[in-house]
Amino acid sequence: QVHLVESGGGLVQAGGSLRISCVASGRTMDRTAMGWFRQAPGKERELVAGISWSEGTLYYADSVKGRFTVSRDKAKNAVYLQMNNLKPEDAAVYYCAAPRELYGMIRATAAEYDYWGQGTRVTVSS
Known about the structure:
mainly beta, 7-stranded mixed β-sheet, 4-stranded antiparallel β-sheet, globular
């Protein structure tokens, strides 16, 4: 049973930074692409960042390019999302997710992911 646990969300002023973390248990994720999604009230869950299993490919949504950085620490079975220059529109619940497949590409849609964390809320005050 794979468990993903996010942490690090909170309240931050616009222009501030947060680093959210996701730690996996139940399976080593070093051969699995990982994604960070977010979901704001009334909106669909969207992929904001992804990292391939080899770390050679990174994906960022246009809305976060240049502000967010995804990374992973395979020794800790963890993936991180550094969020800088946060904007009110970044407020959402952030989820990390992983597909069941090994050595796969970063998947773009929520339906392609099999494992999800419970989410961590990010609130940005203007």
